[in-house]
Amino acid sequence: MELPKFVLADNSDFPDDIFIIHLEYPRFLINLKDDSVEFLEDLEEEDETELESEMEHLITLAGEFYDREMERYEE
Q1: Is the separation of the CB atoms in 43 and 35 below 8 Å?
Q2: 30 CA to centre of own chain
Q3: Given this model, what pLDDT does residue 1 score?
Q4: Integer Cα distance of 41 and 43 in angstroms
Q5: Which of 26, 38, 67, 73 is 20 to 30 A off residue 48, Cα-Cα?
Q6: Which one-letter DSSP state was computed for residue 55?
Q7: What is the per-residue pLDDT for 42?
Q8: Whole-model pTM above 0.70?
Q9: Which of 3, 27, 7 is CA-nearest to residue 19?
């Protein structure tokens, strides 16, 4: 099965929150309510340094994904 790069999620325990989940390495989720980012796996120290610049790009891609999904939903 081929997984998408991003998915949208919600949770009934957090009714006001919407999450974007990044399913490729590094796996993380963004809570759109407060823009917090939570990694779903432990990262090596050297990975953290390398990923700092990549994370900004991935977060931008996540925002673009969300905008596209909302446009599709509104249609």
Answers
A1: no
A2: 5
A3: 92
A4: 6
A5: 67
A6: H
A7: 85
A8: yes
A9: 7
